[in-house]
Design a protein that fits this description.
Blueprint (H helix, E strand, L loop, with lengths): L2 H19 L6 E7 L6 H11 L9 E7 L13 E7 L4 E7 L6 H18 L5 H14 L1 E6 L4 H13 L2 E8 L2 E8 L1
Helix pairs in contact: 1-2, 1-3, 4-5
């Protein structure tokens, strides 16, 4: 019954996010699951109700939205995917992990939970997957900065590529667990 491990991971994120925001009570948790995910919504609700006792979410209701299956005719993939969407008033960040043959669903859940936990614990403004995509907009404006939790190879490659085409310089400053990426005119 992998619903228990999903809910356990969900509560790690709920409690971490609530602590970060100084929240003392959670009134609602919204979760989207694919209809073909193998997750039984009733088991998920039961597991949620067991876990929520004596937590800041003890009065919360779990709202489950079942997402329709989308047929992709030319896909060779096994089709399972876990997404976590973290919303906090001013932004929404989405984390995704994909399964593959022989990879247990608990490992897929663990992978996406670790991505979300690492990002949330860092205090960075944006995650590593968005960091490389924002560079071009800063370069066009010839200014800007943000913080991210990881320097990906995509980020570093995009910096060098953009500098070959536009008269800008990028700087990277490590600030404890995060990196501050800045752009200025060259």
């Amino acid at each position: 019954m992998h619903e228990l491990s999903i809910v356990a991971s969900l509560f790690e994120i709920i409690e971490e996010k609530a602590q970060e925001k100084g929240s003392t009570k959670i009134i609602s948790v919204k979760l989207q699951i694919g209809k073909l995910s193998g997750v039984v919504p009733e088991f998920l609700i039961t597991a949620f109700d067991m876990y929520k006792k004596d937590t800041i979410a003890q009065d919360a209701e779990l709202e489950i939205e079942e997402v329709e299956h989308i047929e992709v005719a030319d896909s060779d993939g096994p089709g399972n995917c876990v997404m976590i969407r973290v919303c906090d008033g001013s932004r929404t960040t989405v984390f995704t992990a994909f399964g593959m043959r022989g990879k247990p669903s608990q490992d897929v859940v663990g992978e996406v939970v670790n991505l979300a936990k690492d990002f949330l614990a860092s205090g960075a403004a944006i995650d590593r997957f968005l960091a490389d995509q924002l560079l071009i907009y800063m370069a066009i404006a010839k200014s800007g900065c943000y913080t991210t939790n990881e320097l990906s190879s995509h980020l570093l490659t995009n910096m060098e590529t953009i500098k070959r085409f536009l008269p800008v310089d990028f700087s990277v400053q490590r600030q404890k667990e995060i990196y501050r990426i800045s752009c200025r005119s060259a």
